[in-house]
Design a protein that fits this description.
Helix 5 (102-127) packs across helix 6 (138-151) and helix 10 (246-265) crosses helix 11. The protein starts with 22 loop residues before the first helix and ends with a helix. Strand 1 (156-159) and strand 2 form a beta hairpin. The chain has eleven helices and two strands. It folds into two domains: 10-215, Rhomboid-like fold (Up-down Bundle), CATH 1.20.1540.10; 244-289, no CATH class. It is mainly α.
């Protein structure tokens, strides 16, 4: 099976300057633009709190857009909120996006944000409002972080930016801290939303889910009337596929070997030559589909 046949490596987006950027880069830009726009607009942080989640969101359908938009705005009173989330997304999101591809990664990230938002509003309704707003990308970021841990458990990461530890221990520390802090009162951080993201990542990984495949199976309404044409018997006969060149077969085999190594040993195990091989093969497959 070639790299273009793998569900997590496909990329059908049209070539352009913005479309060719990784999803992680686009998410960083969107979060940063909204943060700066809120500062420039002013007005008592009107933009941020318009997009943030509130306890009333659940019972007001016209506000349901906040289930998603709340994951793209951050506390205007602390730069560390957005800097911490975006740093973790940048560090752990890139290798996860490499594994799953842009479309699947984006679907996973947005789903994690929505699930955390819905859980927060349900908890607020069940236990009484305990906060006025909920905002931040933490639910999606923690989900991405845990997915990285599941795929690369032996990869070395820096705990507190100083202590080198395996990724599995780092993930255990994050989840354990969130569980402990979730039961403390008086905190302004939605640690339970973090745990929803971690739980979703575990279900996604061990359940072998593919969210983009589920979306494709949904009976979306067709756009416009179907075009009719007369079919002949020759239309039912598929033309013989072109024979692959020896160079393409060799490159495909090498790409499969490198991807298997990526799954076993992590992204850091790839040599510069192996990274270049994957880039060349991916570029050739995109040109073939055009």
């Amino acid at each position: 099976m070639g790299i273009h046949d793998r569900e997590y490596i496909r990329d059908d987006s049209p070539p352009s300057l913005w479309a060719d950027k990784p999803v992680v880069t686009k998410l960083l830009v969107i979060n940063g633009v909204l943060f700066l726009a809120n500062i420039l607009i002013g007005g008592g942080d009107w933009l941020t709190y318009k997009l943030a989640l509130t306890p009333e969101t659940l019972t007001r359908p016209w506000m349901w857009f906040q289930f998603l938009t709340s994951g793209f705005v951050h506390s205007p009173s602390s730069n560390w909120h957005i800097l911490g989330n975006m740093f973790l997304l940048f560090m752990f999101g890139r290798p996860v996006e490499t594994v799953y591809g842009r479309r699947e990664f984006l679907t996973f990230y947005l789903t994690a944000i929505i699930l955390g938002s819905v859980f927060w509003t349900v908890r607020q309704a069940a236990m009484g409002p305990q906060a006025s707003y909920c905002l931040g990308a933490s639910g999606g970021v923690v989900a991405v972080l845990l997915l990285f841990v599941f795929h690369f458990p032996k990869q070395t990461v820096l705990l507190f930016m100083v202590i080198p530890v395996p990724a599995w221990l780092f993930g255990l520390f994050i989840v354990g801290s969130d569980i402990q802090l979730a039961f403390q009162t008086g905190t302004h951080v939605a640690f339970d939303v973090h745990l929803i993201g971690a739980t979703f990542a575990a279900c996604y990984y061990y359940g072998h889910w593919r969210l983009s495949s589920l979306i494709d199976r949904f009976p979306w309404p067709s756009r416009g009337r179907p075009k009719l044409r007369i079919r002949s018997a020759a239309d039912d006969v598929d033309p013989p596929p072109p024979k692959p060149k020896k160079a393409d077969v060799a490159l495909e085999s090498e790409a499969d070997r490198i991807l298997d190594k990526l799954h076993r040993e992590g992204q850091g195990s790839l040599t510069a030559r192996e990274r270049k091989t994957l880039e060349n093969y991916s570029r050739r497959m995109r040109k073939r589909r055009q």
